[in-house]
Amino acid sequence: MTTTTADIVIAGAGHNSLITAAYLTAAGYRCAIVDARPIPGGGATTEEMLTDGMWVDTCSTGHTLIQVNPLIRLDELGLVERYGLSYIDPDPVEVVAFPDGEALTMSLDPAKTVAEIGRFSTDDAAAYRRLLEEWEEVKSAVGAGRFRPIGYGPSPQELLEQHPRGGIWQRRSMMSARDVILHEFGEPHVRAFMGWMASQTAVPIDGAGTGLLAYQIISGRQARSWSIPAGGSGKLVDALVGYLTDNGATIQCDTVVSELVLENGRCVGFRTADGDEFRGERGVVSTIHVKHLVDMAPKDAWGEEFVFGTETFHIGIPFFGVYMATTEPPKYTTHDGTGSAVSAGVAGWIDDLARNSRKVSDGHFTEEWPFMLTATPTLADPARAPEGMHTVKIVTFNASDPGGGPERWDDIKEDIADRQLEYLRRFAPNLTDDVIVAREVKSPLDIERTNRHMIGGAPHGGDRGIGLSGANRPVPGWAQHRMPIPGLYQTGGTTHPGGSITGAPGRNAAIVMLEDLGRDPSEFMAMV
Q1: For residue 437, what pLDDT is reported?
Q2: Percent of the chain with pLDDT over 90
Q3: For 451-462, how does the pLDDT look when each residue is reduced to its tens digit (9 = 90+)?
Q4: 437, 474 in Cβ contact below 8 A?
Q5: Does 524 score more than 80 pLDDT?
Q6: Cα separations (Å) of 393 from 92, 325, 438, 439?
Q7: Residue 341: how many CA atoms within 13 Å on its side-chain side?
Q8: For the residues of 46-62, what is the DSSP string, one character each?
Q9: 184 vs 335: CA distance, rounded Å
Q10: What's the whole-number mean pLDDT along residues 475-489?
Q11: Torsions phi, psi of 448, nearest 5?
Q12: What is the pLDDT of residues 137-170, one digit of tens each?
């Protein structure tokens, strides 16, 4: 057994924990980071797979939400200036096909998008313009709540109350995304497009408290597209790793954390499956999923409320992925020919989208795909593949257990992928077998196998319905990144504001820890 000692020891090397470590390193603290996977990055990794020279985003591809994080927007750690991180904003933004063979193309130019919606409904085109204008009124209030810890300043709800149209926005924020869309838009294709966009955070769009998704996702895409890092999702991680190692931090992979080390009721480190210890003289950080974390110390150390909170923490919606190397991108049939986009897909009608996300969230297997996303980043970033080749990723939602136990996925996943391709070819008929050079299918079970944090194949760290958001995430009373066991802090997708590539949990955790360490966070970051 070996013992590694640092100022801060960190269990997990996803992008959020690396961000926490980077700010602590900027403050002069020695950080030692471990991760169970062979490479750092968690859900923000780009790996060579399928064929030689194919660099595939194995989980996240779009980085739109992190663009407004001061980490990137203000380049607080020099990831852009000194470590080569750069982003591409593809245009067109989206091409979305519908069950009747129609398709809608979203462009970076708002006027073009409005005109495209106007093909379906002039009233909805006006409603879309109004949506963008209205979101400008409140986006700073909502955004500020994302990029600061819970309790550090007014909550978004409190800020909305102060808005001149606060009653309207409070109501919208409590409604479901489905109901907001039905209220604001009338034409079925436009409603389906809006529902498909709102579904991309992988929450049931019929859930109370999801209403602002209809504004946030659309407005962010309209302003910045589906931003992708040049070279792949993992380039964000490469920049963070470069910063950390240049400033004395250590990162050790293939290291599974098995238990927390407690002394006199305080967490002083963690022990690995191999029996090694990592001890933090100033603190311990975890991005281990809270459902696993609670099993790494005696129940009485957590307290009844925290244990209950983790037992009732919903893992979220699992994903099913098909990864392909192709000689062509998917070419969707549109009203004026064919269209392709880095972010594209097929949208069912609004109620089909709502039923699908609810069904999968409730744990039920499905053989229908009203939400289908095809990500083809090589359209805008051809260096990710050999000349003339593309990487295509198909993402749908499905249950962790298809019936008969999760292991049954091993027997049926290829058949499900075949049927998804057959369905997709109704809208992108060029994606024939001869175009597909190689394929790999990842069921929810495979996703969990490759990353134990993604319990049941759900990559977003847990559902983000109203009961698991804000001050309720991960557990009421423990939303400020401090855990019930003194000395232990939590970051990552199980904490506010949740999953996706935002970097917000990592930066917020750093604010709390720096203050607890007696440091002023404003020395290292802009305070929102």
Answers
A1: 96
A2: 87
A3: 999 999 999 999
A4: no
A5: yes
A6: 18, 9, 12, 10
A7: 28
A8: EEE-SSTT-EEESS---
A9: 25
A10: 96
A11: -65, -35
A12: 888 877 777 888 998 887 777 777 877 887 888 8
Smallest CA-to-CA distance from 23 within 42, 10, 39 is with 10
**H helix runs in 10-121, sequence order:** 15-26, 70-73, 110-118
The whole-angstrom separation of Cα 301 and Cα 325 is: 49
Judge whether residue 528 has pLDDT over 70: no
pLDDT at residue 367, rounded to an integer: 95
Q: How far apart are CA 180 and CA 205, in angstroms?
A: 10
Pairwise CA distance, residues 246 & 83, whole Å: 11
Instruction: Identify the pLDDT of residue 141.
Output: 76
Residue type, 283: G
SS (H, E, C) 143-207: HHHHCCCCCCCCCHHHHHHHCCCHHHHHHHHHCCHHHHHHHHCCCHHHHHHHHHHHHHHCCCCCC
Q: Is 3.50.50.60 the CATH classification of the domain at 3-44+64-86+230-314+460-523?
A: yes
Close Cβ partners of 194 (under 8 Å, ≥ 6 residues apart): 181, 185, 214, 218, 350
Q: What is the pLDDT of residues 334-378, one digit of tens each?
A: 998 999 999 999 999 999 999 999 999 999 999 999 999 999 999
Spatial distance between the Cα atoms of 511 and 20, rounded to a whole number of angstroms: 9
Q: Which two tokens stand for residue 14?
A: 């996803």
Cβ atoms within 10 Å, residue 522: 10
Split at pLDDT 50, 70, 90, the class of 56 is very high
For residue 173, give Cα distances in angstroms to 124, 215, 288, 501, 521. Answer: 21, 10, 30, 22, 30
Least confident residue range of 20-29, 131-140, 184-193: 131-140
Amino acid in position 223: A
95's tokens: 């091409």
Q: Which amino acid is at 73?
A: R
% pLDDT > 70, the chain: 100
Tell me how far CA of residue 416 lies from CA of 355, 368, 411, 421, in angstroms: 19, 10, 10, 9
Distance CA 183, CA 179 (A): 6
Domain ranges of the chain: 3-44+64-86+230-314+460-523
Q: What is the DSSP string of 313-329?
A: ------EEEEEEEESS-
Which amino acid is present at 18? L
| Buried residues in 80-102 as b, exposed as e (16+ CB within 10 A) | beebebebbbbebbbbbbbbeeb
The pTM of the full predicted model, rounded to 2 decimals, is: 0.95
